[in-house]
Write a structure and sequence with these properties.
About 30% of the residues lie in helices and about 25% in strands. By secondary structure, the chain is an alpha/beta fold. It contains 8 helices and 9 strands.
């Protein structure tokens, strides 16, 4: 049986699959417990190199519940990194599942659940997104202060009532502001995708309070809170959202727009993580 298929069986507890993944990671990396975890979205991949020494790197599809990435711009590896200043270990998840891939919300939540089972207490969720504010153009990092889940889905099953009042940790956002006082904050709206939002949908999201739109992160953040993780979310504005900017939207252009900002935001993320 493929290692990712067990999540599709409704009789399987997804936390058991996350536990299996954590056990394999501990064995393969030699790290009994990871202290922090990162999910690296479009534009953020270079941060891993700046955080510390890579102890081990595994293809995602060799770990229970994970698969090869389905989206260009996402790496298909899971890495264990040792921070030289503190000796703490960071689990870097380059294998993100998106709801639009059609594999189900359990796969979307699997990375953060694995991080929790691996011992992490903090997770940083990053993404590339569309911006609704022309003053925060492509290349601008924005701290997520709250979100709108517009996917029509939840990673939680059954009567799992979770308080999301301070989902995006004020403590961690304060640390990020100490590292870079110029950072601004915004509300992130997750749409299901894979199509980009229409101008009308962008206007709707703006009237609901959104500053950023994308196709990831919110469902992961909910699952992370449920698993007991403290969450920091950071978006990189890669393009102005439909109806805000004048250029047609294409995934290749989004990836290209992230390239110039890559070194700067990678340094920023590494500096923030070193303060945890």
């Amino acid at each position: 049986m493929n290692k990712s298929q067990s999540l599709d069986d409704p009789r399987t507890d997804p936390f058991d699959v996350a536990q299996d993944a954590a056990v394999l990671l501990a064995g393969e990396t030699g790290v009994a417990q990871h202290d922090f975890a990162l999910v690296l979205g479009s534009g953020w991949g270079g941060a891993a190199e700046l955080i510390g020494e890579t102890i081990a790197e595994l293809p995602s599809w060799e770990v229970p519940g994970f698969a090869e990435p389905a989206v260009a711009g996402h790496v298909g590896t899971i890495r264990s990194i040792r921070m030289p200043e503190t000796g703490k270990h960071v689990l870097v998840l380059g294998a993100r599942a998106h709801l639009y891939e059609g594999r189900g919300v359990r796969h979307v939540a699997h990375g953060v659940r694995t991080a929790a089972k691996a011992g992490a207490s903090v997770i940083v969720l990053t993404n590339g997104c569309g911006g609704l504010d022309v003053l925060r153009g492509p290349g601008t990092p924005v701290l997520i202060s709250d979100h709108l889940n517009l996917t029509g889905a939840s990673p939680l099953e059954g009567a799992a009532f979770v308080d999301l009042t301070d989902l995006y940790s004020p403590r961690l956002r304060a640390i990020a502001h100490q590292v870079d006082p110029a950072l601004t904050e915004g509300v992130y709206a997750q749409f299901r995708g894979p199509q980009y939002e229409t101008p009308a949908e962008v206007r709707m999201a703006g009237r609901l309070g959104a500053d950023l739109v994308g196709m990831s992160t919110a469902l992961e953040a909910i699952a992370a809170r449920h698993a007991g993780l403290e969450v920091l979310g950071i978006s990189l504005v890669t393009n102005l959202a439909a109806g805000i900017g004048t250029r047609p939207l294409a995934h290749e252009d989004v990836l290209e727009a992230a390239v110039p900002a890559g070194p700067r935001i990678s340094r920023l993320l590494a500096q923030i993580v070193r303060q945890f």
